[in-house]
Specification:
The protein has a six-stranded mixed beta sheet, sandwiched between helices. Strands 2-1-7-8-9 form a five-stranded parallel beta sheet. It contains 16 helices and eleven strands. The chain has 376 residues and is of the alpha/beta class. α8 packs across α13 (257-266). The chain is 37% helix and 17% strand. The structure holds iron/sulfur cluster (SF4).
């Protein structure tokens, strides 16, 4: 398959592994901020192939994993209202809130339905004029344009029974939170190819200058990931600080300007609580006041609670690179994909689920991710 097979080619991947191993004079610490990349890295054993040259940490790139507890709580509150249908992506149903998940609320009689796109929720609202349909909108800048389209479609159709509970998030403020933290170990970032397809890569220039940290836009296949890692190591070894696009078949400098216009038309930037990471300045997207008629939060009797309750889940430490999933005391014991304690074990893109799926306990390096003496 064109544009896929060449990026899964074992010979090319092996050559890149050897190039990286030759290039690295020390072990560098990189972080990817994309759940798809996390799964690609673990599924293809990229982390183990490069263990001597690179420590790969797994950032907050899984949209389900960062969705705040308060959003699940509010979604359950709305779903329990008579005449309300809560529409959500399937992954969100098992994510724990303060007192259980949407799936548990559904089993108690709440009206929760799975949709595959925000426009499905608009169709549902058209077909159920007697009900209020609330779409739980999660995800990064990659998925937010589809939510914006749904809002504009609902406006065009003059639907009064379609609402959005927006917990969309912005990836760059989360990277800034990690880079500026006192315990930060990350020396370069692999930027998420999907987000950059929408937002472009020039938006990272101020970040690399401010934090003196290379950023490489990276895809998802094994060769993509290795090329991204190679570019990071190349810059770190020679002291370069820049944004490099290692995913040019999808990402342009300015990104997708139509999608950005949609985002800007419907959303405005706000502070947002990220699960496990707390409040991140400018880390979210909420509906602009002119679309308040579609804002589910405006329907709630009380202001949304923004306190994050973690139930013992250590996802914040995992997503900021202070701990790897197998180092969590709950991993594989009181937290499994069948009985998840936290969102990163629920989601198909979560780092904890990835380790559970792809790494046998014997293969896991439980010392990696621990604070290490500075080598610089
Ligand atoms: S293993 Fe479970 S409890 Fe631990 S950080 Fe991951 S999701 Fe949270």
């Amino acid at each position: 398959m064109k544009h896929v097979d060449e990026y899964r080619d074992a010979r090319t991947a092996t050559q890149l592994v050897e190039k990286i191993q030759r290039l690295a004079t020390r072990r560098w610490t990189l972080m990817e901020v994309c759940g798809g990349q996390t799964h690609g890295i673990l599924r293809h054993g990229v982390d183990q192939a490069l263990a001597d040259a690179v420590q790969l940490l797994h950032g907050p790139g899984c949209p389900v994993c960062v969705s705040p507890v308060w959003a699940i709580d509010q979604a359950i509150t709305l779903a329990q209202r008579p005449g309300t249908i809560l529409a959500s992506f399937g992954d969100m149903l098992r994510v724990p809130g303060t007192d259980g998940s949407l799936q548990q609320a559904k089993s108690r009689g709440a009206e929760v339905r799975v949709v595959y796109s925000p426009l499905d929720a608009v169709t549902m609202a058209r077909q159920s004029p007697q009900s209020q349909v609330v779409f739980l909108a999660v995800g990064f800048e990659t998925t937010a344009p589809a939510t914006a389209l749904a809002v504009l479609q609902a406006e065009r159709l003059a639907l009064k029974n379609f609402k959005v509970l927006s917990v969309h998030v912005r990836v760059l403020p989360a990277m800034e939170a990690i880079a500026s933290a006192p315990h930060n170990q990350v020396q370069a970032f692999l930027a998420a190819g999907h987000v950059c397809t929408v937002m472009g890569h020039q938006v990272y220039q101020p970040f690399v200058q401010r934090y003196n940290m290379p950023v490489v836009v990276t895809g998802f296949e094994p060769v993509d990931l290795l090329q991204g890692i190679f570019e990071c190591i190349r810059m770190l070894e020679c002291g370069d600080v820049d944004v490099v696009n290692a995913y040019p078949r999808s990402v342009r400098s300015a990104g997708n300007e139509n999608a950005q216009r949609l985002l800007d038309q419907v959303f405005q930037i706000s502070d947002q609580t990220w699960r496990g990471m707390g409040r991140i300045a400018h880390g979210g997207l909420v509906l602009r006041p002119q679309y308040a008629q579609f804002d589910a939060l405006a329907q709630l009797d009380q202001p949304a609670c923004t306190v994050d309750v973690d139930h013992g889940c250590r996802s914040g430490e995992v997503m900021t690179g202070r701990m790897r999933p197998p180092q969590c005391p709950h991993f594989g014991l009181t937290c499994t994909p069948q009985q998840p304690l936290g969102a990163p074990m629920v989601s198909s893109e979560g780092a904890c689920a990835a380790y559970f799926t792809y790494h046998s306990p014997a293969a896991v390096d439980t010392t990696a991710g621990s604070p290490q003496p500075s080598e610089s």
